[in-house]
Amino acid sequence: MPQKALGGEVGMSFEVLLVYFALLLLIAFGGKYLLSPVQFCLQLLLKGGSGFVLLVVFNLLAQFTGYYLPLNLYTAVYCGFLGFPGVVSLCFLQTWL
């Protein structure tokens, strides 16, 4: 039930205002952590896409030698995060394992 303020009109209690202020501070200072999972997913999607393109280009260039790297989600994300050294390490792994 709303409490009456000093002037007689209905207003909020001090505790409710304090809770609103605390929530506002929590959102202001902790809001960047709410965006962090979204940014991580977007970065994973972008790097996975760039790794996919990198593997497709490598497979197109290496098709004349009969050498290929498998194109799946794991290799695409791996090559996306590591770039060209990721492609080279996948070549070493496929050759010697």
The largest sheet is:
2 strands, antiparallel
What value does the average pLDDT take?
A: 85
Percent of residues in helices comes to over 70%
The topology string of helices and strands comes to EEHHH
Structural class estimated from helices and strands: mainly alpha
Strand content: under 5%
Low-confidence stretches: none
Number of helical stretches of at least 4 residues: 3
Fold blueprint:
Layout: E1 3-4, E2 10-11, H1 14-62, H2 73-82, H3 84-96
Helix pairs in contact: 1-2, 2-3
What are the salient characteristics of this protein?
mainly alpha; 2 strands; 97 residues
Overview of the structural elements:
- The protein is built from three helices and two strands.
- With 97 residues, it is mainly alpha-helical.
- Helix 1 packs across helix 2 and helix 2 crosses helix 3.
- The longest helix has 49 residues.
- It is rod-shaped, with a radius of gyration of 27 Å.
Entry summary:
The protein is mainly alpha-helical. It has helices at residues 14-62, 73-82, 84-96; strands at 3-4, 10-11.
